[in-house]
From TrEMBL:
It comes from Liquidambar formosana. This is Protein kinase domain-containing protein. It is found in: Membrane. It is a single-pass membrane protein. InterPro entries: Kinase-like_dom_sf, Leu-rich_rpt, Leu-rich_rpt_typical-subtyp, LRR_dom_sf, Malectin-like_Carb-bd_dom, Prot_kinase_dom, Ser/Thr_kinase_AS. Keywords: Leucine-rich repeat, Membrane, Repeat, Signal, Transmembrane, Transmembrane helix. It holds the Pfam family Malectin_like. The keyword Repeat applies. One of its GO terms (cellular component) is membrane.
């Protein structure tokens, strides 16, 4: 690439290393506009990389790149990336051809698209001590050629044999069944490390085989894939905390080396097959708890209990999602919450220390906002901010307030956004680890990938409406915008969270109605626990 600094993850989700490259007799240019906003491309190129390019100083010259490999036995694959950065006029046209060692590299000419990337590469590997690329404009082109970025890959030979073919086929079938991971490509075990969630056996002589498969908390739905039984070397299988349904396959008992099978936290039904029950007596560790409709042994008994448990689980999930909303829901009747402090009090009050430990819940889940020791009045209602010393709790502090000492109502909005993220994810504001990570930094890349189920607290076991969670997450991320002017007011937050509540309650009501139909022979009625009737947001 032709930017001034090195780029890699987080700018590049694949953690490719993009190095600055200076070409002789060329001039760099760029654009402040983002690239590939119309959708994700096959190569998922970072916008910061593609927004820079070079062109010849002389408009009639060509671009020349030379790579001295030094080893004629090395094998290469080269990818060139192009994007038009200039808005061309009607009489302007850019088109060029590419040569390798004075011979055509690709058959077709290239016409870069404005603010969208185009990638060209050869389908056959290249080898030789020198690679000389030339990019020439075509006779009908009025503008010189350009180049935004180039990737060069060296083919590595491995001493290990490829992964056992039967295991590879089984994994691809499993991946297809669950549409699980676009990064499961190539050989599962090579190069090291293996695919995410896998552990392989290596002995140096035989092909690697899959010995451990961990798909816990991956948002899997549907039935257990029968292809799992084809992984004959499997010793550990973890499918816990997903939304798998249907019966437990007898074929899993036929895995000869299986030592641990964790199926807890799903929606499986029926009874545990006799073969797996028998394997428990021979050392198999089997975990099937938190599957309300699954009987540990045959025949199943007590159908009444089998109905009540999933309803309670679904109700519990609704309660957790609604905790972020309860603070405001009762405002319309009783005037406890931040929205009232900001817009109902005269003069307005800024709390300055909104955090989960300052939100108290009664036995009926009536939320009360406590600890007003740091609160500030706005002495003049028309003032946009107060200049004051910074107080509050790390992790919840508005970064703009922290650096500028300018306090506004949006400082409370930021803190409440962190609270919403904590309640949805089940994680603290500061996630402890090798390097402490703020919850916003942890959520952002996962949210960008669209994997909402990896964000939600796994203890919910998938029992929530994704539409309500997306809306709640979008509201939370708007609240934690770095600059206060981009954050919503508490009035707007109240409206958004009210809609989240309605979506989630409608989804939960639908589930309960389906349960009532299934339970039509029983007369008792179940209400959501603790809720009163007045309670109304890659390897290539």
């Amino acid at each position: 690439m032709f930017a001034c600094t090195l780029l890699r993850y987080r700018d590049d989700g694949y953690d490719r290393i993009w190095l600055p490259y200076n070409m002789p007799n060329c001039v760099p240019f760029d654009t402040p506009l983002p690239i590939d906003t119309l959708g994700e491309t096959e190569f998922d190129l970072p916008s910061k990389v593609m927004s820079t390019a070079v062109k010849p100083i002389n408009g009639n010259d060509s671009l020349h790149l030379e790579f001295d490999t030094g080893d004629p036995s090395l094998v290469f694959y080269v990818y060139m990336h192009f994007a038009e950065l200039e808005k061309l006029q009607g009489n302007q046209f850019r088109e060029f051809k590419i040569e390798l060692n004075h011979k055509p590299w690709i058959g077709n000419s290239v016409v870069p698209i404005y603010l969208n990337s185009t990638t060209v590469n050869s389908t056959e590997p290249m080898r030789g001590p020198e690679l000389r690329f030339s990019i020439h404009k075509t006779p009908k082109a009025t503008l010189p050629p350009i180049l935004n970025a180039i990737e060069v890959y060296i083919v590595k030979e491995f001493f290990y044999k490829p992964t056992h073919r039967e295991d590879v086929n089984a994994l691809m079938e499993i991946n297809s069944s669950y549409a699980r991971d676009k990064n499961w490509q190539g050989d599962p075990c090579l190069p090291l490390p293996p695919w995410d969630g896998l552990e392989c056996s290596y002995d140096g002589y035989n092909p690697p085989s899959i010995m451990s498969l961990n798909l816990s908390s991956r948002g899997l739905t549907g039935k257990i894939s029968p292809s799992l039984s084809k992984l004959k070397s499997l010793q550990y299988l973890d499918l816990s905390n997903n939304s798998l349904t249907g019966s437990l396959p007898e074929a899993l008992s036929e895995l000869p080396l299986l030592k641990v099978l964790n199926l807890s936290g799903n929606k499986l039904s029926g009874s545990v097959p006799p073969g797996l029950v028998g394997r428990q007596n021979n050392g198999l560790t089997l975990s099937v708890e938190q599957n309300p409709d699954l009987c540990p042994s045959a025949p199943c008994k007590n159908k009444k209990t089998n109905f009540v448990v999933p309803l309670i689980v679904a109700t519990a999930s609704l309660l957790v999602i609604l905790l972020a909303l309860v603070i405001f829901w009762r405002y319309k009747r009783e005037k406890k919450g931040l929205e009232y402090l900001h817009h109902g009090c005269k003069p307005p009050i800024i709390h300055r220390d909104v955090k989960t430990s300052n939100i108290l819940l009664s036995e009926n889940l009536q939320a009360k906002l406590g600890d007003f020791g740091f609160s500030k009045f706005f002495p003049v209602e028309s003032e946009s901010h107060l200049s004051t010393s910074v107080v509050g709790t790390p992790g919840y502090l508005d970064p703009e307030y922290y650096f500028s000492n300018r306090l506004t109502e949006k400082s409370d909005v930021y803190s409440f956004g962190v609270v919403i993220l904590e309640l949805i994810t089940g994680r603290p504001a500061i996630i402890k680890g090798y390097e402490n990570t703020h919850i916003v930094e942890w959520v952002s890349p996962i949210l960008s990938s669209g994997d909402i189920r990896s964000i939600v607290d796994p203890r919910l076991q998938g029992n929530f409406d994704t539409n309500s969670v997306w809306k709640a997450m979008e509201t939370a991320m708007a609240c934690v915008s770095p600059t206060s002017i981009q954050r919503p007011t508490m009035n707007h937050v109240l409206i958004e969270l009210k809609e989240c509540t309605e979506i989630e309650m409608a989804w939960d009501q639908t589930g309960r109605m389906e349960g009532k139909v299934m339970k039509s022979f029983d007369s008792f009625e179940t209400n959501p626990v603790g809720l009163e009737t007045k309670m109304g947001p890659k390897a290539r």
